[in-house]
Amino acid sequence: MIELVQNSNSIIGSAQAVKALAAKEKARILTVSDTHGDWRGLMRIVKQFGPECDALFLLGDCNRDLAELLELANEDKKIRALIPPVLAFVRGNGDPSYFPVSFYIGDRGNIHMPDSLVVDVNGQNIYLTHGHLQGVDFGYNKLGLEATLNKAKYALHGHTHVPVYEQRGNFVFINPGSISRPRGGSPSSFAILTVEKTFIDAAFLRINDNMGEASSYSIFNPIC
What's the distance, CA 154 to chain centroid? Predict the structure, then answer.
């Protein structure tokens, strides 16, 4: 069960859970971006896939839905038990730097949304950002530079609403897509990452209908 406390590095979860994620072999990361108010869709995904994952990454334009998720988790231990023990997120271009919740969580009742974040998973640095500040609509040069400065081989982002798994030189760029507003002919989607010692595998899941039943998700190949 996740501990609803925000650490100094902006990650929500106990210090023990964050440390365990850094050392855990073959970690599974539920990765979602650009929910844009579809908190019910986010909840359906968390209910089905959260219990089998070690962390939840939200890659921006999610603050309203993150707030709803946290409020529900604070009120209901059954919902809290569905959320992976580590919750990391970054600010999108539609998100504030801070937003309030009704309970004490580190900085009284304020949640800080950083522009970027480095998370240690299974001994690997993973760089998280939304992508608008790095101009990912036009390429990966700036994002790749930031990943280099943060000693990260993998950079996760959102913003374009298009799912991507792309390797360029020594870097891998991953975008899970958007669960509510897909673009470029792509489906509504999210991803589950499997983090091994030497690589990260990504399974992209298409949302086949808005009801979110167990049979409504299917694996597909994104743009590469």
Answer: 13
The DSSP output letter for 197 is S
Can you tell me the distance from the alpha carbon of 16 to that of 149, in angstroms, rounded to the nearest whole number? Answer: 27
Task: Say how far apart CA 170 and CA 208 lie, in whole Å.
Answer: 34
Phi/psi of residue 43, nearest 5 degrees: -65, -40
CA atoms within 13 A on the CB side of 21: 28
Stretch among 14-18, 34-38, 214-218 having the lowest mean pLDDT:
214-218
56 Cβ contact list (under 8 Å, min separation 6)? 29, 30, 31, 32, 46, 50, 83, 84, 86, 87, 88
- Record the pTM: 0.96
What is the radius of gyration, based on Cα positions, of the chain? 16
CA distances from 145 to 87, 132, 156, 164 (A): 25, 15, 13, 19
Residues 147 and 153: beta-carbon distance below 8 Å: yes
